[in-house]
């Protein structure tokens, strides 16, 4: 089995801009959260940047799905950047309602 690749695309280790890319070779890749900093609506996540993983090029923008853990700004404030991605966005029930009220995005629970 190849190594699982995990990379922060946000602002780790600081509070805000939570965004983690996970690549499981031969299985799937996904983004966990897409946040902004608490004092700004600017996001600039690295979702379109290319990374090298075990001799392969991986691009978070080409992920199989996105999972938003909850509706706080530091975990979901940058979901507008994900509109161009051609993949499902998953989230729990309360977060889904929050997102649909504020943005016209399709979520799967």
UniProtKB/TrEMBL annotation:
Coiled-coil annotated spans: none
Metallo-beta-lactamase domain span: 19-84
Superkingdom to which the source organism belongs: Eukaryota
InterPro entries per record: Metallo-B-lactamas (IPR001279), RibonucZ/Hydroxyglut_hydro (IPR036866)
One Pfam family hit: Lactamase_B
Record's protein name: 73 kDa subunit
Organism field: Hexamita inflata
């Amino acid at each position: 089995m190849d190594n699982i690749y995990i990379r922060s695309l946000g602002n780790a280790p600081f509070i805000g801009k939570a965004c983690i890319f996970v690549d499981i070779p031969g299985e799937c890749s996904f983004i966990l959260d897409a946040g902004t900093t608490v004092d700004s609506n600017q996001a600039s996540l690295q979702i379109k940047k290319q990374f090298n993983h075990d001799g392969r090029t991986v691009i978070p923008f080409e992920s199989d799905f996105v999972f938003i853990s909850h509706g706080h700004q530091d975990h979901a404030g940058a979901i507008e950047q994900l509109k161009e991605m051609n993949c499902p966005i998953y989230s729990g029930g309360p977060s889904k309602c929050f997102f649909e009220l504020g943005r016209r995005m399709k979520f799967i629970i």
